[in-house]
Description:
Elements: E1 2-11, E2 16-29, E3 31-36, H1 37-45, E4 49-53, H2 55-66, E5 74-84, E6 94-108, E7 113-120, E8 124-125, E9 128-141, E10 149-160, E11 167-175, E12 180-189, E13 197-204, H3 213-216, E14 227-233, E15 239-249, E16 254-263, E17 282-291, E18 296-311, E19 317-331
Antiparallel strand pairs: 1-2, 2-6, 3-5, 4-14, 5-9, 6-7, 6-8, 7-11, 9-10, 10-13, 11-12, 12-15, 13-14, 15-16, 16-17, 17-18, 18-19
Organism: Magnetofaba australis IT-1
Main location: membrane
Protein name: Putative aromatic hydrocarbon degradation membrane protein
Amino acid sequence: MGRAMAPIVYQVNPNLSIGATLDLVWMGLDLQMDVDGSTFAKMMAGNGGTVAMSSNLATTIGGLTAGSYAAFGATDINYGRFDFTDGSDFTGEADGVGAGFKVGMSYKVNPKLTIGAAYHSKTAMQDLETTKASVSFAAVPATMGGAVVPMTLSGKMEVQDFEWPQKLVVGAAYQATDKLLLVGDLSVTDWSNTMKNFKMKFTADDSTSNNYSTSMGIATADFRGETMEVSMTQEWDDQTVLHLGAEYKINDAWSVRGGASFSDNPIPDTYVNALFPATIQHHYTAGVGYKFNDLHNISFAAAYAPKSKATQPSGMEISHSQFNWSLSYSYLFK
């Protein structure tokens, strides 16, 4: 996800400033999701999500996994897979653009204390789309002697209504001494209005490889132009995060920094999914900066997030820890 921002700031008086930005937002997404036959069947049956399909897919796949085996004569399904990726660390195969905005203010209470607040809007994004997606599954049709029959359909995938949530932040900075600066903020992110469901729509293209009717001898196995709509329940909660930080100036050139953030986990254990392992709750940070002169400086920072875990009702456990570092150079235009 990236943003190009057009900011504007107005100084109301020596103590009060207000500002706003209009953001051009772009988003890319890769997805490679494997599910076992049981999970695929549960998705079709509405357990943890819903699937709506057009005629041939509904007859062949829907009947298979929802329990009506007459059309396909299947006795089992081995796996399902949703796949689209461009193999890049910086972009995603399914992409789209949109917009958002921010407004904020800062007020200097006295020479030592400054307070501020900001509001980030919910984005208004296009559906993320790619024409290079595939959906695969393997069935065990009784009509073919019980052999496993893998099928892969190519086509267009749309990730629907995938938005970045609105967020409200209030904070303060306190110059405790000439050398020590203390900062903190409290934010609330409105995940509950953007992560209710993860929705995708797949449309099989007109490739001859999507027509299995001849090879399988089943008329309903021609999937060209057929659609599948998947909705995976998320039901995230809103998230409150407290950030605390400090900077100490050793001398005119060197500064050291440290901080921490503390939050709750917005994802209910009932719906936690390996696709969205956002289970981390706390972060600890440290950094150092060197100022060459009034124009040039460099900074190094590191952040560590201890392991946190969530457990589904089925007993599957998802854990996540993280370590990041960054090195930056900045030049001040005067």
